């Protein structure tokens, strides 16, 4: 009798274990995960947040602790996990907007600056902002990008004629990407690819993410006491955008982006917040990806092979190279999220554990490579470079077209030589830049 009872119990437990979506014996509370040592009260692991080598520090933690999800502590009873496991990252990204959100600190910072658009907002606000952005960039014809890539060629050629043949790549490509987003999304032309034009808007926009990064990662909001200059820049850029948007309204009733905003009955401050978001999100991300991409193509000696290809063959080979370069040096490898509620992952870390994440916990998703670690879930796809789930980057296709069209022109018209390779590991300030990457262009006779 006793034996039969035990047998029944065993079978019931076996069934429960097989059919349950989560194997309970392998559950682990996030706070019990391994944590990098040597970080003490009062700021613990926050001492690393946002530093220029923060991305490399994450890799170091993962390698040293031999696990792809680690626990980190922040001041004032806050805590979080760094996730470098592809499957868990995919699951978390897809569970938005219900289960996870962007870190609330991001929304607070962007709201304080009155630029709470599609990137930083949440809930219904995000839904309407996102609709406007998605519609604004939908169906952009890549043919619109081609004339701007020709301007890039002319800009470099004319500079060479004036004995200026060396260029800081991120700066050069920022002129191009700001011009592309201005022209194809807003129908206005800032002429940044004309010799002698100062890229005023582009330069101001470039300072925004690094300063926002400082605010996001600072333990004490010192900017409330000593100005960090961010509010002033945002005010200036907003002024510029307001003027542009007002003049666009008068000039062109059919401007796609504005038309969508007006249809949504969006007030001016929301339109500006989203215009702002589009510029900030589109400009440096694409310029830096182009810079890393060209560096990769030059250093791996792929230039001559690429030049032999045309049409679809070129596009395929080129996309492959850019994706390889993005895998090696992703420009946006860190995504800051926060749990809306208690959540247990269905995917397991590389110790085979499902992880229970508390409500309010901070999540630092790391989509870069942890080189020395043999990651069990290392599947890579281009979408992870652009995030995932409902909040995936809406500019992904434009960015890839922009990069392909721009670099193809350069490869076709110039010989290119690296003068200074920049910082091989990259410098993190929300995005990862190659720093002082300089190249020399000479015209192909
Ligand atoms: C190579 C260039 C680019 C990279 C690597 C990149 C990467 C990213 C990443 C990682 C995110 C976060 C996604 C997530 O949370 O799941 C994002 C969001 C976003 N990106 Fe991009 N991006 C690029 C270009 C662009 C362009 C060209 C545009 C616009 C034309 C754009 C507009 C946005 C917007 C509006 C968001 C916020 C989406 C939301 O929260 O709903 N991005 N991008």
From TrEMBL:
Cofactor annotation: heme
Transmembrane segments: 7-27
Alphabetically ordered keywords of this record: Membrane, Transmembrane, Transmembrane helix
InterPro entries: Cyt_P450, Cyt_P450_CS, Cyt_P450_E_grp-I, Cyt_P450_sf, Cytochrome_P450_monoxygenase
One Pfam family named in its UniProt record: p450
Molecular functions (GO terms): heme binding; iron ion binding; monooxygenase activity; oxidoreductase activity, acting on paired donors, with incorporation or reduction of molecular oxygen
Signal peptide: none
PANTHER family recorded: CYTOCHROME P450, CYTOCHROME P450 12A4, MITOCHONDRIAL-RELATED
Family: Belongs to the cytochrome P450 family.
Name the record gives this protein: Cytochrome P450
């Amino acid at each position: 009798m006793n034996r039969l009872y035990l047998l029944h119990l065993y079978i019931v437990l076996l069934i429960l274990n097989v059919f349950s979506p989560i194997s309970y014996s392998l559950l682990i509370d996030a706070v019990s995960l391994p944590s990098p040592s040597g970080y003490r009260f009062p700021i613990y692991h926050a001492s690393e947040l946002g530093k220029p080598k923060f991305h490399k520090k994450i890799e170091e933690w993962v390698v040293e602790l031999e696990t792809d999800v680690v626990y980190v502590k922040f001041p004032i009873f806050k805590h979080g996990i760094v996730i470098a496991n592809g499957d868990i990252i995919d699951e978390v990204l897809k569970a938005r907007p219900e289960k996870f959100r962007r870190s609330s600190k991001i929304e607070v910072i962007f709201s304080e600056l009155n630029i709470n658009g599609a990137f930083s907002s949440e809930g219904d606000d995000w839904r309407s902002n996102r609709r406007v952005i998605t519609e604004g960039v939908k169906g952009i014809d890549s043919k619109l990008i081609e004339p701007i890539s020709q301007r890039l060629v002319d800009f470099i050629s004319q500079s060479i004629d004036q004995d200026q043949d060396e260029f800081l790549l991120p700066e050069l490509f920022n002129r191009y990407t700001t011009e592309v987003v201005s022209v194809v999304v807003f129908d206005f032309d800032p002429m940044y690819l004309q010799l002698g034009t100062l890229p005023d808007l582009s330069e101001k926009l470039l300072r925004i993410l690094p300063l926002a990064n400082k605010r996001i990662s600072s333990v004490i909001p010192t900017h409330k006491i000593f100005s960090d200059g961010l509010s002033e820049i945002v005010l200036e850029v907003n002024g510029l955008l307001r003027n542009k948007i007002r003049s666009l309204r008068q000039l062109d009733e059919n401007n796609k982006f504005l038309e969508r905003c007006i249809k949504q009955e969006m007030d001016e401050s929301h339109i500006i917040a989203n215009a702002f978001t589009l510029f900030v999100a589109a400009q440096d991300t694409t310029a830096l990806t182009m810079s890393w991409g060209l560096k990769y193509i030059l250093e791996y000696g792929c230039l001559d092979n690429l030049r032999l290809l045309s049409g679809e063959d070129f596009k395929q080979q080129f996309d492959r190279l850019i994706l390889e370069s993005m895998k090696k040096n992703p420009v946006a490898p860190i995504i800051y999220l926060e749990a809306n509620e208690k959540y247990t992952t269905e995917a397991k870390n590389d110790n085979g554990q499902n992880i229970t994440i508390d409500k309010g916990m901070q999540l630092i998703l790391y989509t870069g490579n942890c080189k020395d670690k043999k990651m069990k879930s290392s599947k890579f796809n281009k979408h992870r470079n652009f995030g995932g789930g409902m909040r995936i980057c809406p500019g992904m296709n434009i960015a890839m077209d922009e990069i392909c069209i721009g670099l193809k022109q350069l490869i076709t018209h110039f010989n290119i030589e690296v003068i200074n390779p920049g910082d091989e590991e990259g410098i993190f300030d929300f995005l990862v830049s190659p720093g002082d990457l300089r190249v020399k262009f000479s015209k192909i006779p």
